[in-house]
Design a protein that fits this description.
The chain is an alpha/beta fold and 236 residues long. It has one domain: 4-Layer Sandwich (Metallo-beta-lactamase, Chain A), CATH 3.60.15.10. Helices cover 28% and strands 22% of the residues. A hairpin with a 6-residue loop joins strand 12 and strand 13. The longest helix is centred in the C-terminal third of the chain and has 15 residues.
Length: 236
């Protein structure tokens, strides 16, 4: 679904991918969903009159299976470049195991994941870095913001031309209130809360998440509310 001009939300049961459709610069895909999601993305592209070979780049916000699982298949189909932060790249490309969540959730996922979502590692072609920028031509600058805590290499993306902040899992909106992701799925929840506090400085009216509905028009207030909740979690 096109939620802003040139910005498309492609949902699935596990997470959400975002497509930046630029008539002058092809397509940029933010996250690739779980394994097998490449088929859903292909069908969506057909529906909006675009082609997989128009994808110029696949930017992965982080290493978790529900955000990078479809990347290998899409890279093979499109010959696009895959981008990820170097702290997460070893788990994405298979040099290190992609660690499951902590506790009981992790134990269950470790048992069922290979059956339901057999993970295929994906080569990372280029690294992401804080303050890095992509020129999307018609959509303007897409700026990388390193937002660690959920994973050490987690990155979010700011698209000023659409007043849009693409948060990945830096914040979770699955329950209708943007907030720091819960502890079991974080590498470092204290760091994730510290990151949430810094996000209140971002000037963006529109927010989108890996989990949960977009916040359109009221993003600044939502970021400040999330930061206040994070301060309380840290005892401040």
């Amino acid at each position: 679904m096109e939620i802003l001009p040139g910005v498309h939300r492609i949902g699935n049961l596990a997470s959400t991918a975002y497509l930046l459709a630029d008539r002058d610069d092809g397509l940029t895909l933010i996250d690739s969903g779980p394994p097998g999601f490449d088929k859903t993305i292909g069908k969506y592209l057909t529906r909006i009159g675009r082609r997989p070979d128009e994808i110029q780049r696949i930017i992965l916000t982080h290493r978790h299976f529900d955000h990078m699982g479809g990347a290998a298949a899409l890279r093979a189909q499109t010959r696009s470049k895959v981008y990820a932060h170097p702290l997460d790249a070893p788990q994405i490309d298979g040099r290190e195991p992609n660690r499951p969540p902590k506790g009981a959730m992790g134990a269950v996922m470790k048992a069922v994941m290979p059956v339901i979502f057999p993970l295929r590692p994906c080569r990372v072609d280029e690294s992401l870095a804080d303050a890095q920028a992509f020129d999307l031509v018609g959509l303007g600058e897409l700026r990388v913001i390193h937002t660690p805590g959920h994973t050490m290499g987690h990155c979010s993306l700011l698209l000023p031309s659409r007043n849009l902040f693409i948060l990945g899992d830096a914040l979770n909106n699955a329950f209708g209130t943007p907030q720091t992701s819960f502890d079991a799925v974080n590498d470092d929840t204290r760091m994730a809360n510290e990151t949430t506090i810094t996000l209140a400085e971002i000037d963006a009216a529109n927010l989108v998440f890996g989990h949960g509905n977009p916040v359109l028009g009221n993003g600044r207030a939502a970021l400040k509310a999330a930061a206040e909740k994070a301060r309380k979690a840290l005892g401040r």
